[in-house]
Amino acid sequence: MAITLEGDVPIDSVASPPSRLDIAGDRTFRGLTYVFSWMTIFLVLYIVYEIAGKAFPAIQEYGFGFVTGTTWDANRGEFGVFPEIWGTLYSSILALMLGGFFGVSIAIFLTQDFLPPKLEVVFKNIVELLAAIPSVVYGLWGIYVVIPALRPTANWVHEHLGWIPFFETSLSGPGMLPAAMVLSIMILPTISAVSRDALCSVPHRLKEAAFGLGATRWEAILGVILPTSATGIFGALVLGFGRALGETMALAMLVGNSNQVSLSLFSPANTLAALLANNFPEAGKLEEGVLMYAALILMAITLLVNLVGTAIMNRAQRRLSGGER
Amino acid sequence: MSNQIEITHSFAGVDFPQLERSLRHPRTLVSSLLSLLTGFVTVVACVPLFSVLFMLIYRGGKRLSLSLFTQTPPSAFESGGGFGNAIVGTLTMVGIAALISVPFGVLAAVFLAEFGPKSKTASAVRFCAKLLTGFPSILAGVFAYAAVVLMTGSYSAPAGGVALSILMLPIVMLTAEESIKMVPHKMKEAAIGMGATQTQVVWRVTLPSAMPGMLTGVMLAVARASGETAPLLFTALNSNYWIMQDGNLALMEPTASLAVLIFNFSGVPFESQIELAWAAALVLVLIVLAVNIGGQVLSRKRVTR
Fold it and tell me: CATH number for the domain including A179?
């Protein structure tokens, strides 16, 4: 391009100082992006405000007794969500145990050079596809595949080991175990993906040092790699737990919507999210406010768990990027 | 074993059998068993996916025909029918959700990546976006019910769209931020050197270069939203009719969607409706997978200029 040393502006250059209009446009656009950023924060606050506001009359009326109450009877105006809170936590913990074991094992198997890289990618994609299936499809699959497949085994276990509280009822249809199993499949991709990241960020030299000292592959994994990435894996488990708590459709279809507190894996139960899904569409004015209260409790539990998970993940990132240990 | 004992004599202190890899040593045995266990677990974890896909093709494939896409759902004792209205409903609501969440998410992402990446506002916004990623979908429905359905006085497609947009927003925003950050600095600096304002740089250089990555994010968000049921249950409700009735767009009426149709028909005792639920599930999974794969293909075409 013809740039002259004397400083004349050549005619065929596109360079030019911004005009007033450009500057005005720039300010407006920057302002716009700033406003939309703030709107994200306001959106979160507005969601909390809206749900809490609609729940407020019910909070005033039922108070803390709502959390400990065990009956749900819209006709008599008696409401309590203790069974739902219990079911939410119980199903999520069961799903976390199953999904956590599977997810972390898969993450180890796919990061520690057990397979040729191409096969690793294939398996990684398959596990990620599990996350792409909509939860309502898992629910349908659970009703027509998982429950019929589990019933004979479950009833055999109940007959022979019925004295153990976990097996004290028989599985007649929907119940805690099929729901928790399907739930664990749904949180498995989250856990395995986040754990994979944690395992991959362990510096290579640590593993090589362990091998150099004569450690077997699993001595290196259990003694060096897992402890180093423990924070990240713990964060993965907490995030998976958060997902399990809020998951709705699979539970609404598989858990049985029965208001009871039971340790039994085979008895029907209910969760907060499933309660909302099943009762909200037909709720009257009174029940609606009470359901908002239940939604508020669910929101408090999941926000808390997600906050803890995010905090742990941030800590894990800071620690590994600093390269300590 | 005997010849090894001789060697041990000449290299006193070195335990040679211990250096050999043999399954008779407990440590190598444990190692191999654990390897087998994790391999087995990984294969087992793939079973549900194939079982789901098999059942979808086996039970849903039976009912696959053109009339599924042109007819409305049958009543309890009817056979036949389809779910054309539900497909249209799903597309409408996901479209509304995208119209809300894409401009919102991209504008906020531009601020996060370009104008104030290190500001306090930006970290607060990122934090809120991360919280929304883990936000239970049913609560998005509860919010849209309180904010839209109660305000407008009726279950409607826009209410469903608002609920879905809350779930799409964080995905769109965070992936857009990442892909804007990946645009090489020298490209932006070249434009600034020519006298362009930052806004012009964003519109003419950054956004076009970041487009493939942002589109991937949008596709992922669309895929997630199309499969969501919980946010639609009491915002869009369900309907047996087309959204276009006698040439009028019935936007403010209850609207059908594939996901809610599957949920409603999954628990009924009528064989024809159950079959329809499976066929709808097959169609829904095909849509979701197609959008997902489309997004993946786009993400491979990163900026190469």
Answer: 1.10.3720.10
Say how far apart CA B222 and CA A300 lie, in whole Å: 27
3-state secondary structure of B153: coil
Specify whether the CB–CB gap between A99 and A240 falls below 8 A.
Answer: yes
Please count the structural domains in chain A: 1
CA–CA separation, B172 and B32 (whole Å): 44
- Smallest CA–CA distance from B223 into chain A, residue: A132
A45, part of any domain: no
The pLDDT confidence band at residue A76, using thresholds 50, 70 and 90, is confident
Residue A56 belongs to a domain: no
CATH fold for domain B67-300: MetI-like fold (1.10.3720)
Which domain covers residue A170, as residue numbers? 92-271+304-322
Q: Which of A38, A101, A249 sits opposite B121 (nearest CB)?
A: A38
Please tell me the distance from the alpha carbon of residue B187 to that of residue B194, in angstroms, as a whole number. 11
Within-domain flag for A50 = no
pLDDT in tens, A200-210: 988 889 889 99
Positive or negative, the CA dihedral A245, A251, A252, A257 is negative
Of B25, B90, B138, B155, which to mutate for an interface test with A (greatest number of A Cβ within 10 Å)? B138
Q: Which residue of B has its CA nearest to A115?
A: B39
Predicted confidence band of residue B20 (pLDDT cuts 50, 70, 90) = low
Looking at residue A117, its amino acid is P
What mean pLDDT is predicted for residues B253-280?
90
For residue B201, what are the contacts with CB-CB under 8 A and spacing of at least 6? B188, B191, B192
Whether ipTM tops 0.85, in short, is yes
From A185, A196, A81, A198, select the one nearest A139 (Cα to Cα). Answer: A185
Phi, psi of A202 (to 5 degrees): -70, 125
The closest CB to that of B46, out of A25, A126, A143, belongs to A126
> A108 lies in a domain?
yes
Facing residue for B197 by CB, picked from A23, A39, A46: A23
